[in-house]
Amino acid sequence: MNRMFRASCIVVVVAMSAVWTGCGVESVSDEVSLNVLVGHWTVGHDNSPFEAAKKELERRHPGLSVVFDVQQGGGNVRSKFLTSAAAGEMPDVAMVDSVALGEFAEAGLLTDISPFAAEWDEWEDIFENFREAGSWDGVPHGVFLNTDLRVFVWNRRHFKEVGLDPDIPPTSWDEILEYAEILNDPPRRYAMMLPGGSSEHLPHRWYSFLWGAGGEILDSDGRVAFNSPEGGRAAGFYRTLIEKEFMPIDVLSTSADDNDRALASGSYAMGVVGSWFFNFAREVGIRTPEEFNEKFGVSAVPGPDGGVAPSGAGGWTVVLPQGARHPELAWEFIAIAMGIDNHRMWALSQGNVPVRESLASESAFFEMLPFYGVIQEMLPNARTRPSVPGYPTISSELQGALQAIMLGELGVEGALDRAVENANQEMGL
After folding, report:
1. Domain shared by 341 and 276, yes or no
2. Closest Cα partner for 154 from 207, 192, 196?
3. Within the chain, which residues score under 70 in pLDDT?
4. CATH no. for residue 223?
5. Contact at 8 Å (CB) between 81 and 103?
6. Neighbours of 428 (CB within 10 A)
7. Which tens digits make up the pLDDT trace of 82-93?
8. E strand or H helix at 113, and its extent?
C-alpha cells in the first residue's frame, strides 16, 4: 500500500504546504501543484490513466492541483525533461522512453523507487522482465506504462495465390527464402518487408534476428558486441533479401510506418512488424479481428534454424525525477495511474500489450487484438533494448552499418566491426 496511506494519526510534514491532518488524510494548500510531464497522446481523453490519476488524487487531497506539461511527440518529451533538469526545475512525475532510462538514471536524474515499490502491492504483478527493464543497475527507477512486441506477419491470400498453405508460415530463415522465391513478383508484390530507414525501427526489428541467432547487443562486460558471428549471420540475412530482390531497396528510403502500411495493403507477402500492426490494417479497410485473421497470419519471428526468436519489446515508463518537489504525492500519482484498472483501460483503448501477469490472460485482450494469443505466449520472454546511457550511440552506429550492408557499400564483417569500434570508442569503453 502507498506509504502516504498508512493507518497513522501522527502529524507529519510532507512539504512546506502539505501536512498529515488526521488518520491518513492529507490536506494540501492551494499553492501546491504536482507537475506531470507527458506526451500528447496520453492525456485529453477518457481512457487516459493520467487523467484518471489526476481526478482521484485531487479528490483525495482537496487543494492539490495536478498540472500536465503536455509535449507533442516523444522527442519533445525527452527534450523537455533534459531542459527542465538543466534549469533545476524538474517535474514531479515524467514519462521516459524505456530505452533512455539508464541514461537518465546514471546521470542522477531519476529517483530510486525501490522503497515505494516494496510497499506497493501491485509491483510483483508486473512481469519480471519488465520490472528489470524499468531498473538501472538492478535498482527500480520506472514503471512501464505500455509495451509493444515484434511479430512475423504473412498475407494468407498471397500464399493461396501461389499454392502455399496459408496456415503454415516459414519456420526458419532458409524457409523464408524458399517461400520468398515462390511469392516474389516485383514490382506488383515483394516477398519480404523489413524497415531499413534511419529510425529506431531498423535496429529494433533486427534484434529478433540477432537474438534468434544467439547473438547479443552487449557482451558480459557491457561492451558493444553485435559484430559477433551471430550478428554477422543476422545482418547477412538482410543483405540476402536485398541481393535476391525479395525486398526492394526502397525500404531504406521509406518510413517504417509507410512500410507497414504497404504490407497491410498487400504490397508485401511477409514482414516483421509491431503489435500495433492491426492499426495499419484498419487504415486499409480491415475493420474486425475476423477480417484481419482472414487476410493475415501472425507468428513469432522464426529463428535461423527453426524455433522462435525472442521478440523485441519497447514502451514508455513513468518515473519519479530526482529533485521532484513532492515525491510522496508524486509516487501516489504513479501508483494510481499505473494501478491495474488504469493499466487495463489504457492498454485496451490503445491496442497496447499489458505488462501485468494478472491481465495477460484476460479475454478482453484476445477480443481486442486478432493475434493476441501469439503475443501472450511471447510476453514473458520478450526482451528490451539495453537501457544503458550510450544506447543512442549504439543505435545510430548500427543503423549506419545495416544500411551500408543492405546497399552493398560495405561487407557485413567490415560494417559491423566499424560500427562496434565507433560505438565503444564514443562510449569510452
Report:
1. no
2. 192
3. 1-30
4. 3.40.190.10
5. no
6. 6
7. 999 999 999 999
8. none
**CA nearest to 24, candidates 42, 1, 6, 37:** 6
Cβ atoms of 99 and 316 closer than 8 Å: no
Domain endpoint, select from 359, 379, 399: 379
Q: Does 36 map to a domain?
A: yes
Do 134 and 210 fall into the same domain?
no
Name the grid cell of 119: 510497499
Q: Which three cell numbers stand for residue 354?
A: 499489458
In this structure, what C-alpha cell is assigned to residue 402? 545495416
Do residues 327 and 320 touch, judged by C-beta distance below 8 A?
Answer: yes
- CA 159/CA 116 separation, integer angstroms: 52
Q: Look at residues 303, 258, 41 and name the one whose alpha carbon lies nearest to residue 146.
A: 41
Helix (H) and strand (E) counts for the chain? Answer: 18, 16
Domain assignment of residue 327, yes or no:
yes
How would you class 287 by CB atoms within 10 Å of its CB: exposed for 0-12, middle for 13-18, buried for 19 or more?
exposed
Between vectors from CA 366 to CA 360 and to CA 367, what angle results, nearest 5°?
135
| C-alpha grid cell, residue 395 | 543505435
Q: Rg (Cα) of the chain, in Å, rounded?
A: 23
Only one residue has cell 510522496, namely 328
- Chain position carrying cell 487476410: 295
Q: What is the pTM of this model?
A: 0.86
336 and 411, same domain (yes or no): no
Is 15 contained in some domain? yes
Q: Which residue has the cell 498475407?
A: 155
Kindly report, residue by residue over 283-306, the tens digit of the pLDDT.
999 989 999 999 999 999 999 999
Whole-number Å distance between alpha carbons of 113 and 243:
49
Instruction: Give domain status of residue 385, yes or no.
Output: no
